[in-house]
C-alpha cells in the first residue's frame, strides 16, 4: 500500500464515520478554551472539564483573571496535574492578553506562542478549533497513532509528525483530522491495548498489516 492510498483510505473512513468531530474540552469562549487547553497538558479532558465551570464563572474574561492572585486561582485547579505551574501560566497568559492584545485572542501562531503556557501544540489547537485553520496539534495520541498506523514513518518528534501530516492531508480537513486522530487514540488505538478487532481503519494500518503477516 502506498502512503497516498493509506491517507486516502483513512480520510475516507473518518469522513464517513466521524463527519463532525469536536474537542471534548468544554468551553464557551476562545479565552476559556485557552485556559482549558493549558490545563489539559498531561491531564485528561474529563478532569479538566470537572474544574473549569467554577473557574470560568470566577474569571469570565482575561481582565478578571489578570487581576487575580495565585492564591485565589490555585484552589480552582488544584486537582489537575502540575497545578502550581498552571496557575502561574493562566494568570500570566491573561496578563499578556490584556497588556499586549487588548484582551482579544490572537489568531496566528506566533502571537499565540507569546502567551505563557502556550507552546506549539496549544497554539495549533486554538487555530484549528476556534478559527478552523489548517493547523495540526500533535499531542501524545496524534504522535502515537500516526506512527502506529503508518501516517508517519517512525517520526521522532511532534514537529516532524506535524510536518508529515500537513504535507499529506487535504488542508481543508486538517482541523477535523486533528480530532480524528485524538479520539481514535483515546478510545480505539490505545497506547497499551489497541482495540484492533473493532478498528474501522485496520485495513489501512501498517502495524495491523505487519501483525497479520507475521501470524500467517
Provide an overview of this structure.
This protein is mainly alpha-helical. Helix content is 61%, strand content 0%. The protein contains 12 helices and no strands. The protein has helices spanning 3-17, 30-39, 45-58, 62-66, 70-77, 83-100, 109-112, 120-131, 140-149, 158-168, 174-187, 206-215. It is elongated and about 55 Å long. The two termini are 19 Å apart.
Helix proportion range = 55-70%
Q: How many individual helices?
A: 12
Backbone structural class: mainly alpha
Question: Span between N and C termini?
Answer: 19 Å
Question: Which strand-content bin applies to the residues?
Answer: under 5%
Compute the gyration radius: what is it?
19 Å
Helix-strand topology string: HHHHHHHHHHHH
Total E-strand runs: 0
Write out key terms for the chains shown.
mainly alpha, 216 residues, 0% strand, single chain, 12 helices, 61% helix
Provide a quick synopsis of the model.
The protein is mainly α and 216 residues long. The protein has helices spanning 3-17, 30-39, 45-58, 62-66, 70-77, 83-100, 109-112, 120-131, 140-149, 158-168, 174-187, 206-215. The protein is built from twelve helices and no strands.
Amino acid at each position: 500500500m502506498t502512503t497516498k492510498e493509506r491517507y486516502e483510505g483513512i480520510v475516507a473512513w473518518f469522513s464517513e464515520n466521524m463527519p463532525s468531530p469536536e474537542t471534548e474540552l468544554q468551553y464557551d469562549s476562545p479565552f476559556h478554551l485557552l485556559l482549558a487547553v493549558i490545563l489539559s497538558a498531561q491531564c485528561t479532558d474529563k478532569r479538566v472539564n470537572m474544574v473549569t465551570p467554577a473557574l470560568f464563572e470566577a474569571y469570565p474574561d482575561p481582565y478578571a483573571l489578570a487581576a487575580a492572585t495565585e492564591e485565589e486561582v490555585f484552589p480552582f485547579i488544584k486537582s489537575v496535574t502540575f497545578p502550581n505551574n498552571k496557575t502561574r501560566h493562566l494568570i500570566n497568559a491573561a496578563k499578556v492578553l490584556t497588556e499586549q492584545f487588548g484582551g482579544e485572542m490572537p489568531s496566528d501562531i506566533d502571537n499565540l506562542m507569546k502567551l505563557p503556557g502556550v507552546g506549539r501544540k496549544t497554539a495549533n489547537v486554538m487555530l484549528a478549533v476556534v478559527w478552523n485553520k489548517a493547523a495540526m496539534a500533535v499531542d501524545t495520541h496524534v504522535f502515537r497513532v500516526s506512527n502506529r498506523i503508518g501516517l508517519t514513518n517512525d517520526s521522532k518528534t511532534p514537529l516532524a509528525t506535524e510536518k508529515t501530516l500537513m504535507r499529506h492531508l487535504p488542508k481543508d480537513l486538517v482541523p477535523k483530522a486533528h480530532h480524528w486522530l485524538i479520539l481514535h487514540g483515546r478510545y480505539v488505538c490505545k497506547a497499551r491495548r489497541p482495540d484492533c478487532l473493532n478498528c474501522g481503519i485496520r485495513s489501512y494500518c501498517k502495524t495491523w498489516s505487519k501483525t497479520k503477516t507475521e501470524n500467517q
